[in-house]
Amino acid sequence: MNLKGHQRAVPEPTLRRLPVYHHMLRQCLDGGMETVSCSQIADELHYDPTQIRKDLAVTGIKGRPKVGYDLAELVDAVETFLGWNSTRKAFLAGAGHLGSALVGYGRFNRYGLEIVAAFDRDPARIGRKVHDREVLPITKLPNLARRMHVLIGIITVPAPAAQEVADLMVQGGIRAIWNFAPTRIEAPDDVIVQNEDLYATLGVLLQRLNTTLREG
Amino acid sequence: MNLKGHQRAVPEPTLRRLPVYHHMLRQCLDGGMETVSCSQIADELHYDPTQIRKDLAVTGIKGRPKVGYDLAELVDAVETFLGWNSTRKAFLAGAGHLGSALVGYGRFNRYGLEIVAAFDRDPARIGRKVHDREVLPITKLPNLARRMHVLIGIITVPAPAAQEVADLMVQGGIRAIWNFAPTRIEAPDDVIVQNEDLYATLGVLLQRLNTTLREG
DNA sequence: TAGATTGTTAATCGATTAACAATC
DNA sequence: TAGATTGTTAATCGATTAACAATC
Lengths: 216, 216
Description:
Strand content of chain A: 15-25%
Number of domains of chain A: 2
Largest interface: A-B, 66 and 66 residues
Largest sheet of chain A: 7 strands, mixed
CATH superfamily of the largest domain in chain A: NAD(P)-binding Rossmann-like Domain
Radius of gyration of chain A: 20 Å
Strand order of the largest sheet of chain A: 5-6-4-3-7-8-9
Shape of chain A: globular
CATH architecture of the largest domain in chain A: 3-Layer(aba) Sandwich
CATH class of the largest domain in chain A: Alpha Beta
Oligomer: homodimer
Helix content of chain A: 40-55%
Order of helices and strands of chain A: HEHHEHEHEEEHEHEEH
């Protein structure tokens, strides 16, 4: 019922819970279960059952009253919805500790993401191999991205270089950026920027720890 | 006024924005600025000015009408509030790619966190050096944590081992856990668990990318 | 059938944003 | 003083939770 034909975007909190469900559901599936109900999920995850129903509904899955959801079907629906059933190529910029770890972290391959090349600005790093992948000069990123139809960029450079790298990515036609630098990145509206701000989590952790130590 | 003397916990969204302010404010400070107003911050970060004022207020800082905030004072207030002005020791469990990267990532030292030892279950990893730190057997974690008064644990083991490792940490008196495994961890109420769920961010990124590609 | 569970509509809660008085 | 900005109270918005009818 909307003129532009656009669905209302799925709320981010819902989207972030889906991988949590997925992990739990896959374990159930591997354990031989065939169906699952929201109350079972709720007991395990300590979420509200109504919330779980609403969350799962966005994937298009239908449950059966009194029975629950078909587990195999549900896992597949979540994977398809999150884009984990196909694989997209990604470029990573910044072959430092964190970047190299992500390149070597093969598990993302089963979650829709294949890091096909790493880039850096530092001549000392260029040409080196990181987990069997050669580190390329960052200047080559835009052309290569276009030629290889790479739509995802991962930024693991230090904060001062992040915007510059993002600009190169946008120039290369990249449409989604996973940003590990603790800084805001400007990009056109049709480019998705998702921040993974480790310092934010660290700040929350330390503040809450200090609070409980002071009060407890 | 509340009988137990506890402050209402600062909302997590506010807490997660403070590091973002901090990064920007420090840059301003390094650039020679002396005061900053909420509208300046808002222009840069694209946040609502009222929200910024409320967020900053939790640190106890006072601004001056018509002038704004004293920048040096503000940066210090944020750092102190987040616990970035002192350093706490942390143990890391799981010396794989990601764990090793975090151990080698020295920048956390200036943000309140010093990773003093890495642990693993795998005999092939135990005894090896990771960025000049020897990898210790995970079984030694509880005793060492108590002896060294380590209150923070970082979990970078695979999901199936995460709960077991968390239990060892709790047993060793650890009070805050930074969990990189994509699984829920059970811990006593007085132990803080902060999840860094890379798969959640990845899922959001891919789902939104697929949506825009389909619609655009 | 009775009971459990889904799906959906309504109520609540908390966070964001708007309005505005206080102040330098 | 006039104007800009803070700090705070009120209104809005969106997400979570409760209530309940539909269904197997």
